[in-house]
Amino acid sequence: MVCLHVYINPSIHPVISTLTTLPSPPPPPLLSQFSIFLGSVIMGKVKIGINGFGRIGRLVARVALLSDDIELVAVNDPFITTEYMTYMFKYDSVHGQWKKGEIKVKDSKTLLFGDKPVTVFGMKNPEEIPWGEAGAEYVVESTGVFTDKDKAAAHLKAVGKVLPALNGKLTGMAFRVPTVDVSVVDLTARLEKPASYDDIKAAIKAEAEGSMKGILGFTEDDVVSTDFVAGIALNNNFVKVVSWYDNEWGYSNRVVDLIRHMAKS
Ligand SMILES: NC(=O)c1ccc[n+]([C@@H]2O[C@H](COP(=O)([O-])OP(=O)(O)OC[C@H]3O[C@@H](n4cnc5c(N)ncnc54)[C@H](O)[C@@H]3O)[C@@H](O)[C@H]2O)c1
């Protein structure tokens, strides 16, 4: 689940988000699982900050550093020293060692990714973090702490509201199985137009090789949990697709895609 709030800086025009528009000013405290703070008008690279330098925070940082159009300017985590941030960023037992460049501690308030300085804050209260001083235009909230329970529950019920065209047509669930990474999604759908199991496989394969290349994959090899996609057709109108996905790397990439999308609009 991705809960999205857009925090509107008083200095810019209100923005309508996918799920919620919050009044401005003043910007409310960070509440959601994934939040974005929108700053000044974007020119050139999109400057981002990351709140919480855990699994997701570090992977979003990796995605940012691999992207030409995104610039990581600041990180906040009150529970990790810059030395430990460096160590954990460099050595990731799931996603492998970072070999795209040096990461060093410059001082207690700065990390160096190659030659690029990144400001480090250590504040517990999101309202006190001076993201603007570091030049951050968007902040990825990846602490898992600032989640408003009621709002999150509302989002869980919100598939029909967000995608009304899908109301009553599909249901599904995802669960993280005890592997180091990956989750499985179990999607059950009643189809308007009948489709055989082979038709569905062909459609997924076509998407994997077409418009969703790099995001969706398809294999018919005999695979286990760290590999992907299985399914059954109960009949040609009622099907179940079980697909594995990399919850960490996939989520982190989609977060950055979302920032790109918002920066463009
Ligand atoms: N790990 C996954 O597979 C995954 C996938 C998708 C979404 N998510 C979501 O991403 C969020 C983060 O998950 P994670 O797995 O990276 O967690 P994590 O525990 O690895 O990281 C959380 C980080 O936040 C820091 N933190 C805690 N309180 C803080 C505060 N007040 N201010 C700043 N930093 C603080 C912690 O020190 C830690 O480094 C959660 O909301 C989770 O649901 C996780």
From TrEMBL:
Q: What is its EC number?
A: 1.2.1.12
Q: Which organism is it from?
A: Cynara cardunculus var. scolymus (Globe artichoke)
Q: Which family does it belong to?
A: Belongs to the glyceraldehyde-3-phosphate dehydrogenase family.
Query: Per the annotation, which location comes first and is thus the protein's main one?
Result: cytoplasm
What's one GO MF term for it? glyceraldehyde-3-phosphate dehydrogenase (NAD+) (phosphorylating) activity
The subcellular location is: Cytoplasm
> What class does this enzyme belong to in the EC scheme?
oxidoreductase
* Protein name from the UniProt record: glyceraldehyde-3-phosphate dehydrogenase (phosphorylating)
Going by the UniProt record, its keywords in alphabetical order are: Cytoplasm, Glycolysis, Oxidoreductase
Q: Give the highest taxon in the source lineage.
A: Eukaryota
Q: In which pathway does it act?
A: Carbohydrate degradation; glycolysis; pyruvate from D-glyceraldehyde 3-phosphate: step 1/5
Highest classification ranks of the organism: Eukaryota, Viridiplantae, Streptophyta, Embryophyta, Tracheophyta
Q: Which Gene3D superfamilies match?
A: NAD(P)-binding Rossmann-like Domain (3.40.50.720)
| InterPro entries noted in UniProt | GlycerAld/Erythrose_P_DH, GlycerAld_3-P_DH_cat, GlycerAld_3-P_DH_NAD(P)-bd, NAD(P)-bd_dom_sf
Its GO CC terms? cytosol
**Is Oxidoreductase found in the keyword set?**
yes
**Catalytic activity, as annotated:** D-glyceraldehyde 3-phosphate + phosphate + NAD(+) = (2R)-3-phospho-glyceroyl phosphate + NADH + H(+)
- Report domain Glyceraldehyde 3-phosphate dehydrogenase NAD(P) binding positions: 46-171
Quick one: a GO biological-process term for this protein?
glycolytic process
Q: Name one Pfam family in it.
A: Gp_dh_C
